[in-house]
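Hi all, long-time lurker, first post. I run a small reading group and we've been trying to get comfortable going from sequence to structure in the token notation. Rather than ask abstract questions, I figured I'd post a concrete chain and ask someone more experienced to write out its structure so we can walk through it together at our next meeting. Sequence below, copied exactly:
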Amino acid sequence: MLGMSISAKQVVRTWWAAMAEALLEDCETSGDIAAKQAMWRADEADAYCGRCGASAGEGAATESGCPHCRGQSVAWDGVVRLDAYESPMDEWIRRMKFRRMWTWGPWFGRQLAMASGGRLRGGRTVVTGVPLHWRRRWSRGYDQAWLMAKAMGEAGGVPVSRLLERRRWTTSQSKLKSQHKRAANVKDAFAMKPVDLTGWTVWLVDDVKTTGSTLRQCVRLLKNAGAERVFVAVAAVADPKGSGFERS
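-- Answer (accepted) --
Happy to help. Here is the structure in token form:
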């Protein structure tokens, strides 16, 4: 440290100051978050479309979908979500992903197990997660979707398995605005583990569903491996813009 230049010392001090500020912020807001969590309730099944996961007004979603997805094909067999990607859920997810507050993952997983109801149990059912690339998992310290999937399976009493792997690095989907760019970004980014899923129902877990490009790639791989049905379970769905039924 004695040989460190003044500029290098300033960098270190700035880093420690930022870390201290982040820790202080977490301490100051932990009570507020606990209060919000105590008052929060997962969406009822009729609050969103069970086909695409978007928020839907009363009577807007039917078995054939909602105004956003009706008439369009979807890769999965149904969506279960906890909430729309809005306050306070968006804040909680960002803390889990970017502030190292990994304990949100198991909590989300247990909530998803309850939200899935009886559909999670029975028959040949397995839970898996959308995998992170090893570089992102290493830098973050954990794979949040796997933490969610593991807790969901344990709470629901069904097996959990890493069925997919991410074989190449991709730009974060949140940085890409168009559905076309998101789809191109994850094309061929995933691969199946050597497993036969014939006759199995798979629950695929992730933190947020936006355009569905990532989930679509994973679902197709799972069905190509023989999965009879694949359900998507996410903490939040980013409602499609201009759909006419976003929640205010």
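A couple of things your group might point at:
Residues 1-6, 14-24, 242-248 have pLDDT under 50 and may be disordered.
The chain has two domains: 8-39, 43-237.
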